[in-house]
Backbone:
């Protein structure tokens, strides 16, 4: 697995030979921060694999409210289910930093999946991992108040991308409190209050595009339902 690649990502499940095959087939593209990679409602004529950077996956409600329901990063595949089912996009994907992807047409992707079973298996494993992730999030949301939801979210960030420094575990994140609120399905005011509580207890401090977790053990205790 490449450095920085998510352990349950699509690329992490590929053999070196299958990965090389896709790399030779696809076209590399680069997107700036806040660029839209895939748009909800568009035809599913291609898929993307993230080579570097992170994106947010969201959907829009009829009242115009945006719901962020996932973050994706290096090694993750985007748009594969819509491509397999030949349906329109059910979500939008927007960069939250500079992102580089490998893009394949729907035809290229389907041919590769048919001819190389390892690629189809990697898609299935990736989808299974996302299903477990979604189920855990649903259970957590039902069982936790806003404070616990935020603690759970911060613990996941700590595990995925935290780095240990003298003052604690530092997590770089370009997400605003609005973004976090949308992802947790709560109001921004609720998230702000939860952050203020954690700051007052000395558990975390926040800066520009950065969260420092000073007391990971306390955060882990709050994470429990």
Residues:
């Amino acid at each position: 697995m490449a450095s920085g690649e998510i352990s349950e990502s699509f690329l992490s499940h590929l053999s070196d030979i299958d990965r090389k095959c896709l790399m030779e087939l696809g076209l590399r593209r680069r997107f700036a921060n806040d660029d839209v990679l895939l748009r909800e409602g568009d035809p599913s004529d291609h898929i993307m694999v993230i080579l570097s950077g992170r994106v947010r996956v969201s959907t829009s409600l009829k009242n115009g409210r945006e719901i962020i329901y996932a973050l994706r990063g290096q090694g993750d595949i985007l748009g594969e289910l819509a491509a397999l089912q030949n349906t329109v996009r059910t979500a939008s994907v927007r960069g939250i930093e500079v992102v580089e992807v490998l893009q394949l047409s729907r035809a290229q992707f389907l041919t590769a999946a048919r001819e190389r079973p390892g690629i189809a298996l990697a898609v299935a494993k990736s989808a299974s991992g996302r299903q477990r992730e979604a189920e855990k999030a649903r259970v957590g949301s039902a069982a936790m108040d806003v404070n616990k939801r935020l603690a759970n979210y911060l613990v996941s960030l700590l595990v995925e991308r935290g780095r240990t420094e003298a003052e604690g575990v530092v997590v770089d994140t370009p997400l605003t409190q609005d973004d976090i609120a949308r992802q947790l399905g709560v109001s921004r005011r609720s998230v702000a209050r939860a952050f203020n509580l954690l700051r007052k207890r000395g558990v975390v401090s926040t800066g520009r595009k950065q969260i420092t977790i000073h007391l990971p053990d306390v955060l882990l205790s709050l994470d429990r339902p």
Q: What stands out?
A: The chain has two domains: 11-139, 144-223. The mean pLDDT is 84.
